[in-house]
Design brief:
With 940 residues, this protein is of the alpha/beta class. It has 23 helices and 37 strands. This is DUF4159 domain-containing protein.
Length: 940
């Protein structure tokens, strides 16, 4: 390597040593003598002048030819600009683990270049390659392939707003090398950020039997991310985390759902600090409009924080066991509470006074906090809902009173165990004086508030002294007895004021400190899901939330791609391939899913597997560039210049006014070619067409139905005739005129050109390879649909798996990310896409047509079409559709219908039409504009 230039064949440079010899030879060879005509008078006239023919070539011509020779030698040595040294040594397979999580977005191009360089060098060495991203679906498979296939797979990988799972990815890579002859070499192209699976990853690396471990990572990563948002009573706060190399200042902007700017602020990290909090002083009326917070100039998903109902203005439900006198509102148990909470919370009041009715109704509205003033015993129906609500994150605040004091021993919704009865302070029969409020402890949620000097307590309920009392005491009186206690319960909390909510036991409710204390409690309360009960084991099947908007790795919102699944109770808490960061639900109510958890820090990733050294390298910042083409071009230009010079010396080319012989046509052609090369090089464009481009253009211009070539000649001929018959039927009955059907080799042919691929099952055909199955899976994930036909309705079905064809289908589906399936329901768009159908027969009629189960099923009887169902990526039938569609050149059927009913073939063709219309228009027929026509056709 010489500086930033290397040579692929450096031995060729030894030819440069021959340049002195070439110079010597060129000096000895004179130019060709000038030819003259034989006019005697001209010869005699010239005898007077003395002219000599030079014995040596001119020095400038010699230098030009030496330069030309040197350029050719350098070009043959194939110089490379920014050459990459050998990145991975060894003879075994090369395993490439590449992080494609949220933090990979800023330098994704460098990661791709690094992987490309590794794959290219492995290809030159003839080593197999296995490539796997760390954010992938649960059914993702990894296999050893050649460099070309690995490069194609690399092109399909993109960063996702999820969290990396390096341990699971490494397990897939190692599984692909179980049959390898030599130990593999692992190359990790990581983001430099640690993940929770660090210990498991080190253990797996230590026992993997690797021949080497290479780590390619960017050093000194400059990342700042948002980890939490809090709609506090005193402002809107964001928690930020950074890497050690990040800047100390960060600018954050707040936007509403229409991307309108609501506020902007700047914060500074303390020296060496990894976290900070920025607070925005925004009016209450605008806080609920905040939809997104973004760090300026940070193109990654960690710099965008999405907000949902949990970040909105808190909803607080108020309950009491004692009704106040409307004529004396100051004696109402909830008067002071409602006055204190009303400025910064939405209050929910009971409707009937029956706790068994009011508590469930209030919980259905998704409150962040429920305040109970002197409520003793809760009905069973209310208690069950309170348990679920607390587990989902609700905060229960209770105030003491006579009823609570009477039933405190058996109450499960208290933070501490209470003594029976009340404690009176300062009465005629008491030796003690009314007690003041002690200073709030540093670890209390009320820390920082000033203890009120004018507040005294004359009555309270006492807690049993035990080991947990001190930890659960949030505020106490001057004598050390608790005033406020609290404890976490599930995801929520229970808080108890040991005095009443009105000013009978204490004057605390009429003080400003009371308002501040309730604000502090409201700050850490979170709204629960409105309109739904918390997810339980019995209800988890109905708790799935469809993806609404997905956060890209660069921090922008986008329409959810095909691989994103509904969010349910079993979803991983960390965003991943199937549930990346984004919004899940409907526009009326959704849940925000962000890449980082609350209070998470950005720590460095430092793999240290026991007994294995880690070789660290930087990412490849620039692509290699082959300079040999440019050198050959320069040599050709010098060759043109040399030719013109020789013509001029020999008198074949004149630039003066003296009469000379005109240069021959060859000289003119050479001159024209030279001018084209010299002056046209800057504007010319290389012809980058490749063999097969005409087929690609034809596939793009004409929509065709494709089918898979199984290797079974009989099945393939029937399928070809069937797809051709359906094509003719579509052209005669609809405005859609598809091109001739195409048979596909799914391992080699491009699948993306075809909206539908018909895949007949044949036990005698070839089993698709893992590569072919992986390409089918990528086709489905990118929006294509495969229609699998087992053709075995008379002997089995898809569900019982009794036939070889069905077993073959099960083997293929084992390598695909298959969504939940269901037979086509009566209200599915497929049944009304063109014809009104209630079944989808082929040569047989007994098998249902299986499609992806719809995540949304409102079941409304007033709609003849299900809403929200998209295009299914998979269809499965056993009715042998192609055999029913198959026609000869004269339009006669090639196969008889099993039932003998001629109408069945007509319905088979109509089924094919509906399938194709559905593929081309999606849920278009579910639009409201079609409802009157559909109802009329259905006779409703």
């Amino acid at each position: 390597m010489i500086g930033a230039i290397g040579f692929t064949f450096p031995a060729v440079l030894a030819a440069l040593a021959l340049l002195p010899l070439i110079w010597w030879l060129l000096r000895l060879i004179p130019p060709r003598p000038q030819t003259e005509l034989f006019p005697p008078l001209r010869i005699l006239a010239r005898l007077v002048k003395k002219e000599e023919t030079p014995a040596k070539s001119p020095w400038w011509l010699t230098a030009l030819r030496l330069g030309l020779t040197a350029l050719v030698i350098l070009a043959l040595a194939r110089p490379i600009l920014n050459p990459q040294s050998e990145l991975a040594s060894g003879d075994g397979p090369l395993l490439i683990l590449i992080d494609n999580d949220w933090s990979a977005a800023p330098d994704w191009d460098d990661r791709v270049r690094t992987a490309q360089a590794l794959i290219a060098q492995a290809g030159d060495q003839g080593r197999p390659v296995a490539l796997a991203p760390t954010v992938a679906g649960p059914a993702a498979t990894v296999q050893l392939t050649d460099a070309g296939a690995a490069a194609d797979m690399l092109g399909a990988i993109e960063p996702i707003a999820g969290r990396a799972d390096r341990d699971a990815t490494l397990a897939r890579l190692l599984a692909a090398t179980e049959t390898a002859d030599a130990p593999p070499v692992l190359a990790m192209i990581d983001t430099g950020l640690a993940e929770p699976d660090g210990e498991a990853l080190n253990d797996r690396l230590a026992g993997a039997g690797l021949d080497g471990l290479l780590r390619f990572s960017a050093t000194d990563r400059d990342l700042v991310a948002i980890t939490a948002a809090d709609n506090r009573t005193d402002g809107f706060a964001l928690s930020l985390a950074r890497t050690p190399a990040a800047a100390e200042t960060a600018s954050v902007a707040l936007y509403d759902s229409r991307e309108r700017l609501l506020g902007r602020g700047e914060t500074t990290f303390e020296a060496g600090a990894a976290e900070t909090i920025i607070t925005f002083d925004i009016p209450f009326e605008l806080r609920n409009d905040i939809a997104t917070a973004r760090i300026d100039g940070a193109p990654h998903a960690g710099a965008a924080f999405l907000l949902d109902e949990n970040n909105r203005r808190r909803r607080v439900a108020l309950l009491t066991g004692l009704a106040g006198d409307e004529a004396q509102p100051l004696l109402s148990p909830l008067f002071y509470i409602s006055r204190a909470l009303a400025p910064f919370a939405d209050l929910i009041e009971p409707r009937t006074g029956d706790l068994s009715v009011d508590v469930p109704e209030m919980i259905d509205q998704g409150p962040a906090m429920i305040v109970m003033a002197d409520i003793g015993v809760l009905p069973a129906a209310a208690a069950d809902r309170i348990d679920e609500w607390l587990a989902a994150g609700g905060t229960l605040v209770r105030f003491a009173g006579p009823r609570l004091a009477a039933s405190a021993q058996d109450d499960p919704y208290l933070p501490v165990t209470l003594r029976a009865g009340e404690r009176a302070l300062g009465g005629a029969l008491s030796w003690s004086e009314p007690q003041a409020v002690a200073a709030f402890a540093a670890e209390s949620p009320f820390a920082g508030l000033e203890a009120p000097r004018d507040v005294t307590v004359t009555r309270q309920i006492l807690a049993q002294p035990d080991a947990d009392l001190a930890d659960r005491t949030w505020a106490s009186l001057a004598d050390g007895t608790p005033l406020v206690t609290g404890v976490r319960r599930g995801e929520g909390a229970i808080v108890l004021f040991h005095v009443t909510a009105e000013a009978t036991w204490s004057n605390l409710p009429i003080s400003g400190t009371f308002v501040d204390m309730l604000r502090r409690i409201t700050d850490f309360a979170r709204n629960t899901e409105p309109g739904q009960a918390p997810v339980t084991a019995a209800a988890e099947s109905t708790a799935a939330l469809p993806p609404l908007r997905i956060l890209r790795a660069d921090g922008t919102l986008a329409i959810p791609p095909a691989h994103v699944r509904p969010l349910d109770a079993e979803a991983d808490a960390r965003p991943g391939f199937e549930n990346p960061a984004g919004l899940y639900g409907t526009p009326e109510g959704f849940v925000a899913r962000n890449v980082l958890a609350r209070d998470e820090t950005l720590t460095a990733f430092a793999p240290a597997p026991p007994g294995l050294d880690v070789a660290e390298q930087s990412l490849v910042a620039e692509d290699e560039a082959d300079l040999s083409g440019w050198l050959f071009l320069a040599a050709f230009v010098l060759l043109i210049a040399d030719t013109l010079a020789v013509l001029w010396i020999n008198g074949r080319l004149s630039f003066g006014t003296a009469p000379r012989r005109r240069a021959p046509a060859s000289a003119a052609i050479a001159l024209a070619a030279g001018l084209v090369v010299i002056f046209g090089a800057g504007t010319s464009r290389a012809d980058d067409t490749r063999p097969g481009d005409d087929l690609i253009l034809d596939a793009l211009e004409t929509t065709r139905i494709a089918y898979v070539l199984t290797g079974d000649r009989t099945v393939d001929e029937t399928t070809r005739a069937g797809i051709d018959g359906l094509t003719r039927f579509l052209a005669s009955r609809t405005a859609f005129e598809p091109g001739a059907p195409v048979g596909l080799d799914i391992e080699a042919d491009e699948l993306a050109f075809y909206p539908l691929i018909y895949f007949p099952m044949s036990a005698q055909g070839d089993m698709p390879s893992e590569t072919a199955v992986a390409r089918l899976d990528a086709y489905m994930q990118n929006g294509g649909t495969i229609l699998f036909d087992t053709r075995d309705q008379l002997t089995g079905s898809f569900t019982d798996g009794a036939t070889p064809e069905t077993e073959r289908l099960r083997d293929i589906l084992g390598g695909l990310n298959v969504p939940p399936l269901e037979p086509v329901p009566p209200d599915h768009v497929l049944t009304k896409a063109f014809y009104i159908l209630d079944n989808f027969p082929g040569r047989y009629a007994g098998s249902p047509l299986w499609v992806e189960a719809s995540a949304l099923d409102d079941g409304r009887a007033d709609r003849p079409v299900r809403t929200g169902d998209g295009v299914t990526p998979i269809m499965i039938t056993g009715n042998d559709l192609a055999a029913a569609w198959a026609l000869d050149d004269a339009g006669r059927p090639l196969h008889a219908i099993a039932t003998g009913d001629p109408l069945q073939r007509i319905y088979a063709f109509r089924s094919g039409v509906n399938i194709m219309m559905y593929m081309l228009t999606g849920n278009y027929k579910a639009d409201q504009v079609h409802i009157p026509a559909l109802l009329e056709r259905l006779g409703q």
